[in-house]
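We close this part of the discussion by returning to an individual protein. The encoding preserves chain order, so positions in sequence and tokens coincide. The sequence in question and its structure tokens are set out directly beneath this paragraph:

===
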Amino acid sequence: MRNLATTLSIPGMPDWTGLLLLALGLLCAAAFLLMPFSVFGVKARLEALEVQLDEIQAEIRSLALRMGEPAPPRRGPAATDEWVEPPASYVATPARDYAAPRVAPPVPPPAAWPDAPARGAAPSSRSEPRLDWPRNRN
């Protein structure tokens, strides 16, 4: 032990200070390794997740029980003896009754090119070369 104390001694300090620092370091390391997870907040988060999981399971159970039950009958609207006239915009007119709705938009007229010369007129100053392919060279 004395040999270990002399090797760990800090110059200018008593021989036992090195051993004391080593013991404190080992104690802190052991406390860190053995520390419960609740110090880091993991325990609280795990408990919150467990509560949420229990709620989800209870909801699934209640939905499963409801799926087995027949659906309650639907009630129709209550019948009234009052008569209300429809607004004038909804009153049927002969034009609305018999006019078929238009399915497609109207077709515009074809484009007219006023600059283009009429067919059979004199060619313009520019003409494209004519290609006679394939040429037979015999």
User: Anything to note?
Assistant: The chain has a mean pLDDT of 75.
